[in-house]
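Data's thin. Show one?
=====
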Amino acid sequence: MMEIGTPLGLGFASGINAYFPLLSFAISARWLHLYKVNPTFAFITSNWCIIALVILTILDFVADKIPVVDHAWDATHTFVRPLAGALVAAASSNRVIIPIGTGSSISSHLLSAASAATGVIHITGGGLLVLALLGGVLAAMSHTAKATTRLASTITTAGLLNVILSIGEDILVCIVILLSLFVPAIMLILLVLFLLFFGPRIFRAWSRRSSSAGRL
């Protein structure tokens, strides 16, 4: 059974901060050795990529707390965040735990041997694409929720609460990342609850935007 809460949780967090979840996963894989990166995306643990992610994370942290700039930053990241969510979901999709039965079939013996030899089966092809899409969709949903909340705050409070909202979002991202990396089962449950409560509203918002764009 795959620890699917990890890639999906990191993808969700990317909709709020495009770079910190990927940076956190890269650090946890390279120096903390908590995970192994899917070989296709091994470049995320390279020096140049980590340095770039550190710089972008700092820029995101600062820009998100400056009035007007925060809205421009959100607008420019409308497509960046879903792409980041897809990337981090795919990169963290490396671990699959295969339950081995107690039967004596040839397939069971082969699976046991493979599991004992590697402990890890890398997801490729269609499975990797599905996880990337799910990560991207979750990032798009959390981005929509963030941008909508920030716009409502600007309209109702003239942006006075935007900095507080930004700090709250930073805390939320940290919590989501920690849950995704260390308690993926709980993260998965929280994602399901998010989809149940907020999913319909977000999809309706997307539908209204599509209708408005179509009329234009």
